[in-house]
Amino acid sequence: MQQKAIQMGTDPIGKLLLRQSVPASIGILVMSLNILIDTIFVGQWIGSNAIAAINVVLPVSFFIAALGMSIGMGGGSIISRALGSSQKSKANKTFGNQLTLTLLFTISFMTLGLVFMESIIPIFGGKGALYAPAKIYYTIVLYGVPVLGLAMMGNNIIRSEGKPKYAMYAMMLPSISNLLLDYVFIHVFDWGMEGAAWATTLSYGICMAYIFYFFVSGKSDLFLKASDLSLDFSIVKEIGSLGFVTLSRQAAVSITVLLVNNILFELSGESTVAVYAIISRMLMFALFPILGITQGFVPIAGFNYGANKRERVLEVIRTALLSSSVLATFVFLVIIFFSKEIASAFTQDIDIILKTKKVLTWVFLSTPIIGIQLIGSAYFQAIGKAIPALLLTLTRQGFFFVPLILILPQYFGEFGIWISFPIAEFVSTIVTAYFLRKELKQYRE
Q1: Nearest alpha-carbon partner for 238 in 379, 384, 382
Q2: What is the mean pLDDT of residues 32-45?
Q3: Which position has the higher pLDDT, 78 or 249?
Q4: DSSP 8-class letter at 396
Q5: d(CA 412, CA 12)
Q6: Distances (CA, A) of 14 to 244, 300, 317, 318
Q7: Calpha distance 61→113 (Å, rounded)
């Protein structure tokens, strides 16, 4: 076992969480800025309908890419625990199985996505004036999704080895390249939606190229043999049970975007779908420090759980919860006080700006407590308990949010959609806190 992995079981928790979380947060920040600025470029240079069209496509491409992420996170949990218990051969075999599974699933779903494209786009809200630009973006981006899936899988493995800086670089490179390509393809070459799509797709390839370099250059603790690529049922089952948590989370996100896009389109038309597109970008961007802490927390908790160092597990949970709550409160205050400036960055349409300003306040209302839900559900995934991890993950987007957006708009119209966000967040946080506290009681007995 390499020194970097050993440090997850010996270094002070505060220092360790900082070292794991800061690169993860920076990586997420750069990736989120990429999505944010990409949306600004598209809105300013192509139009607000283009923003809405991209939001229609993202759930489909993100779901297929999430197959790679879920396999990466499911296997990453196994790798962290295997390294913690000095089972190097199991870590290598898990890596090989992850690679095989990612290729099989992403290519299969990409093919299905292209075959049934004409039906999928309208289902996800690509109707009326949004259909044509959505189809252009969808077709080009979907071809690059298997590469993105491999990159997401590889990035999570790098993080599970306790090497967050390399994972950060893997997220930064495609983000920066995407922005540069956006400027060239959209602003200079005037390729419109095709330019936005090609910039995104080529950036996936740059990300994958860096991750491939990491694994073949000897920087990784893992060493892949040809025999590791053959599927092992017990490992596949464990990857699947843990990875299904991440996949379910992304599936829930895709379903909610589908529902919200369609409900908003029926209630208020294309302009409100554009407002939601801006809101969803802000949800990705504004929560980057909390998501970074969550990603930094998982390998530390998994490693120390595998090494049977329960006091360190408790300490990293306490530290992660406190840090995420402080940062989430700060994010909430920034959103509240600068909502108009945020909305103005995306579009020059005054109606969309004013509506987005109002909506931001409602959607982010429960942000200060979001860390409890994220850290709580991530803990169960880190220690290999797939069922509670799955159920807690689904509380936020699935069990509470979906019923709310189906019921509340019938009584409160468009406002019913926006108020569903904080209500679902608040209730899911209470549920997660209850089960996390119940689980941790056994550590003190």
Answers
A1: 384
A2: 74
A3: 78
A4: I
A5: 50
A6: 30, 11, 11, 10
A7: 9
Strand ranges in 260-363 using DSSP code E only, listed in sequence order: none
Domain boundaries, position 108: 3-444
Angle at 277 between CA 328 and CA 372, to 5 degrees: 25
Tokens at 442, concatenated = 């056994």
Q: What is the CA radius of gyration of the chain?
A: 21
DSSP for 150-214, please give it. HHHHHHHHHHHTT-HHHHHHHHHHHHHHHHHHHIIIIIIS--HHHHHHHHHHHHHHHHHHHHHHH
Report in angstroms the alpha-carbon separations of 262 from 56, 116, 176, 344, 353.
10, 19, 32, 25, 21
Per-residue pLDDT tens over the stretch 414-445: 899 999 999 999 999 999 999 999 888 876 65
d(CA 129, CA 21): 42
CB-based contacts of 59-62 (< 8 A; 24+ apart in sequence)? 59/124, 59/253, 59/254, 59/255, 59/257, 59/258, 60/113, 60/120, 60/124, 60/138, 60/142, 60/254, 61/138, 61/141, 61/142, 61/145, 61/148, 62/250, 62/253, 62/254
pTM of the full structure: 0.69
The letter for the amino acid at 316 is: V
Strands (E), 40-93: none
User: Which residue has 């290598």 as its token pair?
Assistant: 92
pLDDT at 82 over 50: yes
**For the chain, how many structural domains are there in total?**
1
Q: Can you tell me which residue has the tokens 């390249």?
A: 177
